[in-house]
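Entry 12.
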Amino acid sequence: MAIRVFDCWYHDQDVREALGRPGFLDGPVADFAVARIPPRGLPFVVGKKAAAPAGTTVVFEVTGASPLVAAVGVPPEGRAVLLDDVPADPTVRATMDRRTFTRLAGGRWAGARALAEGRVRIEGDEALGRRVVEQMAYTI
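Predicted 3D structure (C-alpha cells):
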C-alpha cells in the first residue's frame, strides 16, 4: 500500500499546482512520500540517466521544515548506489527546496526550468550537476 500513499500524495500535489495552491509539503504523509524518492530513484538518475562517471558522488540537499540529505555514489564497477554517509566534498551538491525536489523527481518540472528560475543551487562540477538536475525525472 505504500505506493498508493505515494501516488495519492503526488496527485494531490499535481492538483494543487494546477490550481496555483501549493501546500501540504510537510507532515507525516509528505515525509513518507518524499522518503521513497532517494532509494528508488536517485541512483538511477545519477548512474544511468546522467551517466555520472565512476568515482562520482552526488549529494541532494533538500531544505525546509523537513530537510533531507541523500548521497549517491558511482563505484568503479556496478551500479550507482545510495550511500550511508554523506561525503564532505562531493563531486556535486544540488540544493533545492522540497517542492522543487518532488516536482523534478516526478517529472512535473523540467530541470532546465528549475535551473533557469534559480530553484536549484549547484556546487562542484557544474556541468554534471546540471545534467543530474535535467535528468531527475524518474517517475511520471
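Annotation: The longest strand covers residues 57-63. Helices lie at 2-18, 28-35, 37-49, 98-105, 111-116, 126-134.
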